[in-house]
TrEMBL record, chain A:
An example Gene Ontology biological process: reproductive system development
UniProt cross-references to Gene3D superfamilies, sorted A to Z: 1.20.1280.50
Top-rank taxon, per record: Eukaryota
PANTHER family: F-BOX PROTEIN RMF
Name used for this protein in its record: F-box domain-containing protein
InterPro entries for this protein: F-box-like_dom_sf, F-box_dom
GO CC annotations on file: nucleus
Domain F-box: 95-135
Protein species of origin: Eleusine coracana subsp. coracana
UniProtKB/TrEMBL annotation, chain B:
The organism of origin for this protein: Eleusine coracana subsp. coracana
SKP1 component POZ domain segment(s): 16-75
Residues in SKP1 component dimerisation domain copies: 124-163
Binding partners and assembly: Part of a SCF (SKP1-cullin-F-box) protein ligase complex.
InterPro entries per UniProt: SKP1, SKP1-like, SKP1-like_dim_sf, SKP1/BTB/POZ_sf, Skp1_comp_dimer, Skp1_comp_POZ
Keyword annotations from UniProtKB, A to Z: Ubl conjugation pathway
Source species, domain of life: Eukaryota
Pathway the protein acts in: Protein modification; protein ubiquitination
Alphabetical list of Gene3D superfamilies matching this protein: Potassium Channel Kv1.1, Chain A (3.30.710.10)
Role according to the record: Involved in ubiquitination and subsequent proteasomal degradation of target proteins. Together with CUL1, RBX1 and a F-box protein, it forms a SCF E3 ubiquitin ligase complex. The functional specificity of this complex depends on the type of F-box protein. In the SCF complex, it serves as an adapter that links the F-box protein to CUL1.
Family: Belongs to the SKP1 family.
Record protein name field: SKP1-like protein
SMART domains, per the entry: Skp1 (SM00512)
Length: 368, 174
């Protein structure tokens, strides 16, 4: 998919600023009926599941788990009972099966859990889901995250991350064209660097207001992002500025969000993206490239990304996007057709119920 | 494997130990190979297993032990090189090919092998067999997994219970 020119020259985004976004809340009333249907099934319908895999699936290509569709709020896991070896697999030990489970993706874990009571208790062990979560986000498997409260188990988090939902599911769904999951990265500091160009400007001011910094050098530093595991998706959406169906403008979006966002109040729809700033490049751009960095590991990840440009920049006539993910940074890049300039818009979403920290960021780039 | 055993370990290249399986079969192997097992390593470092006494392994039968030792002997040179920083790609490919063939075995052998690897704490073998068992499960429905693992069909009560649990995992379907 290539970025397409937007015929209009509007640089404002009234759709985001003024009108309320389309909210597609999860239908509470529908749940019991769907639940009943699910209960009738003897087994998960694998064929139907796989048929849904396609380029339009937000997490296609990541893993078999990426086919997940429904979003469910899971009940907290039951306390882990003592697992007694049972006939006929009395030679089986919890440790051994925990080891085996670490090689299984989410869908296979669920199938195993539904095999019998013994496995159900085994898979209730949250360490298995933690391992799967970290592995499926391409994070280093040696990473040991801080413990989570019981009511927010890793299983809940896994379900929220891999059920196929993405941030365009609920806001501006009609504009969404295509998307894919890139993986996760770690943020161990409130400082997050956003950039609409690479290599980075030599100096990104920490103190200057982010909007000013973005306008001037195309990169800015957030100082109030929520630390934790962040999930990065890439989307292609229709041009935000135009509402008409005639507009063929396509926007490349790097969407990063805190992994807890989808298990929080986000779904009530009151949280919205606000503009952080925009940067306009008034000359022909060869590539649309944007990245998000953990500031603590900035020089390390920047060096590794710049050194390995071949792994994330395609040949100049290949317009398909390409991404690069390190444990502390994410970058996407699309080669561009002939153009007169590139507009990069930065948006952030705050946690409106708690500490007002930034929990999600979008970098949107389109041709002018 | 092209690499000969050259100066591996501080105990000398040729030190042998004797392992005794549950059915009293004696196996004589190099200490370096047996040391892949964390459990045995301590005993060997203490000087056990040499000479006539041998190390008894009451949890492992001779068929399984010979299989385990086949793995250990193949992997010992690479392990002695400390994770093989200087191993060639050919060596690694050869080990991989060996591993693939090694786990291509009957289920019952696989199960006793994973138990033995667990008891003897052989990390590489544990994860190799675990991966193989996981591959047997991947992409299968709960019923198919039951058949693969040789369970009887579920009783109606058990089936009802599993159906109830399915609701918890609704997100994984469709």
């Amino acid at each position: 998919m290539e970025l397409k020119k937007c015929p209009r020259q509007s640089r404002v985004d009234p759709d985001l600023v003024s009108s309320s976004p389309t909210l597609l809340l999860r239908n509470q009333a529908q749940r019991p009926r769907e639940a009943a249907e699910l209960a009738e099934q003897q087994r998960p319908r694998k064929k139907a599941r796989c048929a849904r895999l396609g380029v339009r699936n937000p997490v296609a290509g990541l893993h078999p788990t990426s086919c997940f569709r429904l979003v469910w709020s899971l009940p907290p896991p039951k306390p882990t009972h003592v697992l007694l070896p049972r006939h006929p697999f009395n030679c089986y030990e919890k440790d051994i099966w925990t080891e085996i489970a670490k090689h299984l993706c989410g869908y296979d874990l669920v199938c195993l859990a539904l095999t019998c009571r013994w496995f159900h208790l085994l898979i209730a062990d949250d360490s298995i889901w933690r391992h799967a979560f970290i592995r499926d986000l391409s994070l280093p498997v040696t990473y040991v995250p801080p413990p989570r409260p019981l009511h927010r188990s890793w299983r809940c988090l896994y379900a929220a991350a891999f059920d196929g939902s993405h941030s365009y599911c609920y806001h501006q769904r009609h504009k969404h064209i295509d998307g894919s999951r890139m993986g996760g990265f770690l943020l161990d500091t409130p400082y997050m660097l956003l950039t609409g160009k690479l290599p980075l400007p030599r100096w990104v001011p920490k103190e200057v207001h982010v909007q000013l910094s973005i306008e001037m050098i195309g990169a800015g530093m957030l100082h109030n992002a929520r630390p934790g595991i962040w999930i990065a998706d890439r989307h292609l959406v229709q041009c935000h500025a135009c509402n008409g169906s005639q507009c063929t403008g396509v926007v490349q979006v790097l969407d990063v969000r805190h992994s807890e966002l989808f298990v929080e109040e986000y779904w009530d729809g009151t949280w919205e993206y606000e503009d952080l700033g925009e940067h306009f490049m008034d000359e022909e751009a060869a590539t649309a490239c944007c990245a998000v960095f953990n500031h603590n590991c900035l020089s390390l990840s920047h060096a590794s990304i710049v050194r390995h440009t071949k792994s994330w920049i395609r040949k100049h006539d290949d317009l398909r996007p390409m991404a690069c993910l390190t444990p502390y940074a994410v970058v996407i890049n699309s080669n561009l057709q002939e153009n007169k300039g590139l507009l990069s818009k930065f948006q952030g979403m705050r946690d409106m119920t708690g500490d007002r920290r930034i929990v999600s960021v979008r970098i949107m780039q389109q041709l002018i | 494997m092209a690499a000969p055993e050259s100066g591996d370990g501080n105990n000398g290249a040729a030190r042998m130990v004797t392992l005794i399986s549950s059915d009293n079969t004696r196996f004589e192997v190099e200490a370096a190979a047996a040391s892949l097992s964390q459990t045995l390593q301590l005993t060997i470092l203490d000087g056990g297993g040499g000479g006539g006494d041998g190390i008894p392994l009451p949890n492992v039968d001779s068929a399984t032990l010979s299989k385990v030792l086949e793995y250990c002997i193949k992997h010992a040179p690479a392990a002695a090189n400390g994770g093989a920083p200087n191993a060639t790609a050919v060596d690694r490919a050869e080990l991989e090919r060996f591993d693939n063939e090694f786990v291509n075995i009957d289920q019952s052998v696989l199960y006793s092998l994973i138990m033995a690897a667990h008891n003897l704490e052989i990390e590489g073998l544990q994860s190799l067999v675990a991966k193989k068992v996981a591959d047997m499960i991947k992409g299968k429905s709960p019923m198919e997994i039951r058949r693969t693992l040789g369970f009887p069909d579920p009783t109606p009560e058990e089936q009802a219970e599993m159906n109830a649990h399915m609701l918890e995992y609704g997100w994984a379907y469709e």
